[in-house]
Amino acid sequence: MLHAALAAGLLATIHPTVTQAAEPHRLALQISDDDPVKMRAVLDVAANVSRHYSGQGEDVEIAVVAFNGGLDMLLEDRSPVRERLVNFLKSMPNVSFLACGNTLETLAVKEGRRPPLLEGVSVTQVGVAALMDLAEKNWTIVRP
């Protein structure tokens, strides 16, 4: 009986997934530049990481956090990657998009109206604080 318990303990050490469900991988991507090349890079990274882990049968959650100039990526009336982003929102439920509320308010004052977000985009009060909160919850933060 002791040998069986030791063998089970060794197996759990070597293969921890045998005894516990795997946590999903978590990635937060920062976009803060008004640069269509960087916006496309963020979407490329999200698609590649999602494909990689789903191909291994593993779950991954991806959050794209946009602030400063990067917020243009999520705006209905000026996103240079609008069509691709709409496809993401429809076909990749594991990828979410967060717009910085502070940046939205700054644009509202500057432009006289709050610019419309693409449907399906969420708002967080402070984009950088959202990234910090995610990092504190062990999300990996990347700025492509």
Q: Can you walk through the features of this model?
A:
This protein has helices at 2-14, 36-55, 82-91, 101-111, 127-136, and strands spanning 25-31, 60-66, 95-100, 122-124, 140-142. It is of the alpha/beta class and 144 residues long. It has a single domain (23-142), classed as DsrEFH-like (Hypothetical Protein Ychn, Chain: A). The chain has a 5-stranded parallel β-sheet with strand order 4-3-2-1-5, with helices on both faces. Helix 2 (36-55) links the parallel strand 1 (25-31) and strand 2 (60-66). The longest helix has 20 residues, at 36-55. The N and C termini lie far apart (53 Å). The model is unreliable at 1-20 (pLDDT under 50).
Highlighted features:
signal; alpha/beta; 144 residues; DsrEFH-like; Hypothetical Protein Ychn, Chain: A
Count of alpha/pi helices: 5
Architecture, CATH level 2? 3-Layer(aba) Sandwich
CATH class: Alpha Beta
CATH fold group? Hypothetical Protein Ychn, Chain: A
Report the C-alpha radius of gyration, rounded: 19 Å
Low-confidence spans = 1-20
What's the rounded overall pLDDT mean?
89
Helix/sheet category: alpha/beta
Task: Tell me the overall shape.
Answer: globular
User: What's the total number of strands?
Assistant: 5
Number of individual domains: 1
Gap between N and C termini, in Å? Answer: 53 Å
- Please identify which CATH superfamily we are dealing with: DsrEFH-like
Q: Profile the largest sheet.
A: 5 strands, parallel
Physical arrangement of strands within the biggest beta sheet: 4-3-2-1-5
Q: List the helices and strands in order.
A: HEHEHEHEHE
Into which percentage range does the β-strand content fall?
15-25%
> Percent of residues in helical segments?
40-55%
